[in-house]
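Dear H.,

Thanks for agreeing to be a second pair of eyes. The structure we're designing against is below in token form, covering all 234 positions.
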């Protein structure tokens, strides 16, 4: 992931991430006056939705550039730089959207998050899951992310001593004018890793995507997000 490098172009190219973050907040609302720490807040999509519920949010992200943009976009939240993949500060509740799938060892990260919560402390989690971006993955393989389905993510949560109170998967089919527009959107949002393809390979990939997934609205891509409301158990 290259979110720090693409912080300035993230919001304009992250429409699915914004919609899923807003859906996550609506999926299991917090009571007004609740306090929580948000992990991997980016520029504040989930932050703003939680604040609209009257929640007091301490938003964190590992990217200083993202935090600076988030502070300007959502000034009512408290903002700080913090790496959510290591130990995190104690909090009455945690929330995160679009972060955990990037962890090399999400089970270890979930244990850190569990340890930060009191007994019955809430975790509101949104994470991309299979079949997210299945069209692209069919052409290039798994890439830097190990994609898990709903059952696999829920099993990780339970092994980390979370009781899942509610869960569901939201899917949307996004349309882009062409494959190159789709690829540029991914690149500009920072969700790509180090270059894996040379120019000729990339041109071939773009041609194949256009051929396989073009339609009346342009080319399509499937996005899928697992929404989870869970509580920590001893």
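And this is the sequence the design step returned. I haven't edited it by hand at all.
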């Amino acid at each position: 992931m290259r979110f720090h490098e693409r912080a300035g172009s993230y919001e304009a190219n992250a429409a699915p991430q914004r919609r899923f973050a807003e859906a996550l907040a609506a999926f299991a609302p917090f009571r007004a006056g609740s306090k929580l720490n948000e992990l991997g807040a980016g520029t504040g999509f989930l932050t703003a939705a939680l604040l609209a519920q009257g929640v007091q949010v301490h938003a964190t992200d590992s990217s200083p550039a993202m935090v600076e943009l988030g502070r300007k976009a959502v000034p009512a939240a408290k903002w700080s730089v913090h790496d959510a993949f290591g130990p995190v500060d104690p909090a009455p509740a945690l929330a995160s959207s679009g972060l955990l799938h990037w962890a090399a060892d999400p089970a270890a990260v979930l244990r850190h998050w569990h340890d930060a919560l009191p007994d019955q402390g809430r975790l509101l989690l949104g994470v991309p899951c299979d079949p997210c971006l299945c069209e692209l993955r069919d052409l290039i393989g798994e890439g830097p992310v190990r994609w898990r389905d709903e059952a696999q993510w829920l099993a990780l949560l339970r092994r980390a001593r979370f009781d899942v109170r509610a869960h569901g998967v939201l899917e949307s089919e996004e349309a882009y004018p062409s494959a190159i527009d789709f690829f540029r959107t991914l690149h500009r949002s920072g969700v790509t890793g180090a270059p894996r393809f040379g120019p000729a390979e990339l041109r071939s990939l773009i041609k194949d995507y256009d051929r396989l997934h073009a339609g009346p609205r342009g080319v399509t891509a499937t996005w899928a997000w697992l929404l989870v409301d869970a509580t920590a158990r001893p």
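Two observations from my side: Residues 7-232 form a domain with the Rossmann fold fold (CATH 3.40.50.150). The CA atoms of residues 179 and 206 lie 6 Å apart.

Warmly,
E.
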